[in-house]
Amino acid sequence: MAEITCFFSPQSGYAYLGHERLRTIARERGARIVWRPVDILKVFAEGGSTAPAKQSPQRNAYRKKDVTRWAALRGIPINVNPAHWPTDTLPACRMIAAALADGIDAGDFIGACLGAVWAENLQISELPTLIALADAVGLDGAALAAKAAGPEAQALVEKNTADAVAAGVFGSPSYIVDGELYFGQDRLDFVAAALDAGK
């Protein structure tokens, strides 16, 4: 089975915009998505990137217009001034990692975390919010929260982050197909083409 490795931050606006499109591409081609939540601040630092919230007023003004255009194209809601962005993403990363470590397909939960930031103005650094989001997509939020507090989930996020840096990742979302890196949800057509070429 073909694979798409997706390195991402659960507060990434562009990961939010591309989430369902990525899942559709994978489903239509019978590919598996390997979700890899990362400590995005470390990825930015190692890759020489400036966090979006710290970019110039000009770039942030353009980003807000850009995400508005993409949200309209994708047919999804967007709040260009989310109440809880940027935020501490490690609690969400560890919850997602805990689900993945248990062999759970975390796609719905990841989508819920992204939507919580960019459509619902929820704070994903808070455990009760994460538990409620997990419960809402049919997972056992309390059990995942307990597992997320342990060393396995933390180590998995740290490994994902190190692997992302080693692979040349410098932002979220980043996709890898057959060793080739594609940065940004606006490169998803190239991801689809790479999967098609590999058939």
Summarize the helices and strands and which ones pair or pack:
Elements: E1 3-8, H1 13-29, E2 32-37, H2 40-47, H3 57-74, H4 90-101, H5 107-118, H6 127-136, H7 141-148, H8 151-166, E3 174-177, E4 180-183, H9 188-197
Parallel strand pairs: 1-2
Antiparallel strand pairs: 1-3, 3-4
Descriptive report:
The protein is of the alpha+beta class and 199 residues long. The protein has one domain (3-197): Glutaredoxin (3-Layer(aba) Sandwich). Helix content is 56%, strand content 10%. It has nine helices and four strands, in the order βαβαααααααββα. The protein has a four-stranded mixed beta sheet with strand order 2-1-3-4. The longest helix has 18 residues, at 57-74.
Question: What is the structure about, briefly put?
Answer:
This protein is α+β, with helices and mostly antiparallel strands. The protein has helices spanning about 15-30, 40-45, 55-75, 90-100, 105-120, 125-135, 140-150, 150-165, 190-195, and strands at about 5-10, 30-35, 175, 180-185.
